[in-house]
Amino acid sequence: MSLMASQHQAINLSQGFPEFDTPAYLKNAINEAISEGKNQYCPSSGLPEFLQQIGELVQRCYIKDEARRLDPLKTITVTSGATEALMVAIQTLVRPGDEVIVFDPAYDAYEPGVELAGGRCRHIAMNAPDYAIDWGQVTAVINDKTRAIVINSPHNPTGTLLSSADMKALQRLVLAHDLYVISDEVYEHMTFDGERHESVLAYPELFERAFVVASFGKTFHCTGWKMGYCVAPEGLTDEFRKIHQYATFCTFTPAQFAITEMLKAHPQHIDELSDFYQQKRDVLVAALKPSRFEVLPSKGTYFLLLDYSAVSDMNDVEFSHWLTKEVGVAVIPLSPFYQADVLDEYHQKHKVVRLCFAKNDETLLQAAEILCQL
Fold it and tell me: What is the mean pLDDT of the chain?
C-alpha cells in the first residue's frame, strides 16, 4: 500500500511507521557512538549496560513486587527488531506437528514462523466490532497437539487491549494444559484514556512459560533501526539464545549504545508516549466526525479502524485500492490479517480498514478533510 501511495501521490495512512523524526538526543547519541568507534560486534545477547537499562524499565513498568527481581543478563536478549524476536521464539518452541493458537486479525509474521518450524496455526477470530477474545472458544480448540498461544496487546491492527480478566483466563489455560505463550507487546507504551497495558511480565506464573517481545523502534520513532528485545525466564532464554546466535548473532551495536544513553537521560519520553499518541488519535477522530465513516474505538497502538459500510459496497481490498488511487488517501485493508479460507465470509460481513495516525497533525487533518467529502 505504501508503494501504491507513492505511485499515486496519496496521503499515506497505511503502513505503520511514524512520519516524524527520531528524538534529537537519540540521533546525537548514535552519531557519537559511531564516531567513537563503537562499531564492532557486541555480546550476542546485547550490551550488558543496555540489558541493565531494559531490566530497570521492565521492573519500573510491570513488576511491583520488590521481592521479585529479574536478572536482565539472564532473561533479556536484544534482537534485530521484534520480528526477529518473534521468529526466534517460535523456532525455540514449535516442533513438527505442533499447533499454535493465533487470534485473527493477526499480524502477518506469526504464521510463516510457525509453518517454517513444521507447525500449524489454529486461527480463532476475535469478535467484531469490539474484537474481544472468546476464551470458551479457545478452550474448545486446545488439544494434545497444542503447544503455544500467541497474543498481541496493544493489538495491531484493531487498537484493542487485553484486560486483566483476559490475562487471568489465559493464565488458567496455559497452566492447565502445559502450554507456552508468545506475547507481542511492541506497542506497550501506547495506551489511551487512562487504560493500562496488561503485560505478561506482570503475571509471574504466566511469565514462567512465556516469551515477551518488545520494540524500541516503535517507542523511539526509529523503526528502521530494527531494535527489539525478548524477555523470558532463564531456561527459555537459554534456548532462545541458542537460535538467536545463528540468526543474527548480535544486533546493531551503535544503536544499543545510543538507546542505553536515551533510557538513562530521558526516561520521560516513554512516560509521555501515551499522551503524545492520544493527542494524535483525538485530532483524527474529531476531524472524521462529520464523515460517513464509523470510527471504532482505539485503546492503544497508533492505529484506528474505520467501518466504511455507509460509504461503499466494495470489499476492503478493492476499497483500499480505490481510496488510494482515486481519492488520494492510502489505508490498509483488514482482511489480509485473517486466514485465507475465511475471506469470502469475512468480506460478506465486514467492511473495515485501518489508518495509522503516527503522522503530523497537518497530514491527519488533510486526510480527514478528503475522507469527509465521501
Answer: 96
